[in-house]
Amino acid sequence: MRETVIVAGVRTPVGRRKGSLASTRPDELAALVLDELMERAGVAKEETNDVILGCVTQSGEQGGNIARTAALIGGFPVTVPGVTIDRQCGSSQQAVHFASQAVASGDMDVVIAGGVESMTREPMFSNMHGAKLSGKLTSQYEIINQGLSAERIASKWKLSREILDQFAYDSHQKAMQAIDGGRFDEEIVPVSVMDQEGNTKLFSIDEGPRPESTLDALAGLKTVFDETGVITAGNASQMSDGASAVLLMSKEKADALGVKPLAKIVARTVVGSDPTLMLTGPIEATHQVLKKAGLTINDMDLYEVNEAFAPVPLAWLAETGADPEKLNVNGGAIALGHPLGATGTKLLVSLMHELKHSGGRYGLLAICEGMGMANATIIEMI
Predict the structure, then answer these.
(1) How far is CA 365 from the centre of its chain?
(2) DSSP string, 63-87
(3) Known active-site residue 55
(4) Which of 55, 89, 97, 353 is catalytic?
(5) Active-site residue (options: 97, 172, 353, 368)
(6) Residue 368 bears catalytic tag
(7) How does pLDDT run across 216-268, given as a tens digit for each residue?
(8) Of 55, 97, 172, 338, which residue is the catalytic one?
(9) Residue 243: CB partners within 8 Å, gap ≥ 6?
């Protein structure tokens, strides 16, 4: 199997739902990222063998295979194909896995993996058109919404409202410190947007973090899914808009093109998990990917575990024995947002840049997914 390397990565700033990216079409947002990715890599677009993008709500402006339309908008030759996939919240992480498998096998040499989601313009579940779940599914499994799954995880791992709110507060604090310290500047491509007054401006900073957030304010929020529960809008991820992508290729191709790799894919896995608890998959995915890599959790310098809800990374910490100081060091989706299809490669881009800044070697990325699944990826900096 050939060594698969990542030679470039970029993301947009993440916009709040109905925020700065509300007037931007998702296909055009993805096209901007694809164009910028190739510019940063210094690789001609015609070298690309495929464009694989994650997108969860594939309807409206996100329908019709947005990977292909974004590539055409972005100026790629008509000979470059594109495919759009849905692995729920891990869609663009799965795009990385498919791309790296194609490269490692020798089937392709240069592949873009990324994702896009406008939760403003194409609201979550709008592609379902009100359809009900099959009775053949619900007769076998108790299918509940993710918020109730998060409530059950909090109960099972004895995570109190105070613990969850503290985690959420810390996420905002870390994110604001990262923004103030310029930690995200290098990985972001600014987006020209139109404000509510019709003026054009450059949007370049994630707008999810709330400087005004306090523990008292978080404690004052009502629970959303269970009146006697612990999950609120404050300790759950934000609905968001954004796009992200990475460029993968074989080590041989990178050498031939004179491109310096940033990192390599060490191991990857995807698992199915309990569809009722739904959000615990990252635990088993982490165990599996570490085994595949021949490494331990202590070998990892940093981890990104998506903050779909605060109980998810906290239960993951409890079960893996990971170091909390290495987890989501610049904040997570509670503060920075969760543009569903884009989150996987967004987190991967941030993980690579933070490993570069900190001098770390190994990074681990794990994301829980709807209906009980999870992807996990280990990268090594070069």
Answers:
(1) 9
(2) TTTHHHHHHHHTT--TTS-EEEE-B
(3) no
(4) 89
(5) 368
(6) yes
(7) 999 999 999 999 999 999 999 999 999 999 999 999 999 999 999 999 999 99
(8) 338
(9) 11, 12, 26, 29, 30, 32, 33, 114, 115, 116, 117, 339, 342
